[in-house]
Amino acid sequence: APKIIGLTGGIGSGKTSVARFIEECGFPVYYSDDRAKDIVNENEDLKARIKKLLGNAAYDTNGLYDRKYVAEKVFNDKDLLEGLNEIIHPAIRSDFEEWVKVQKKYLIFKETALLFELKLNRECYKSVLVTAEDNIRMKRVMDRDGKTYREVQAIMEKQMPEKDKIKLADCIIYNNTNLEDLKEHTEKVIFDIE
Ligand code: ATP
Questions:
Q1: Is 6 one of the annotated binding-site residues?
Q2: With CB atoms counted within 10 Å of each terminal CB, which end of the chain scores lower, N or C?
Q3: pLDDT of the residue at 76
């Protein structure tokens, strides 16, 4: 069986950039958050359960998941968010398990924002954390998404603090400089995993 490496980082840390570099090195990456976006449209049973929880408006007139509506609905409602997670997380888990079965490399990577929060690191051989200073992450996300300072801050405040993630991670990639450095650090870390 291949070794599964969990890859995580807070908003704007650069985990997706790292994941791309890993793919360039020839190792497969499962993008949990991306897959979650597809799964809510693919699986009819899931769709029905989400509508039951959040209302029919969770899907637009074309039958597509309305991300903005759902995000607004669950953002400040802990119970609804939990209910949604109880529907989506097991679906991602089984989708990931199917993906693992068809991989041929000895090292495979699972990118997920919630690696430590969901204790998914326990199911990985090693965990890799991408991290950067808060102000740098803030600027990257504001530039990338056109979000305001307050909007990004609200998201950051809901995530596990970097210092806690640093304690839990097996390997840490600091991403405070440029993408060239990031690529170099990434290669060093993945080829050092044994
Ligand atoms: P999110 O959780 O919000 O999806 P992420 O951790 O996946 O974020 P990326 O999307 O990889 O982060 O990076 C956030 C933004 O910052 C992107 O626009 C990316 O191109 C840019 N970026 C990442 N690292 C660097 C860097 N070292 N130098 C310059 N720009 C960077």
A1: no
A2: C
A3: 83
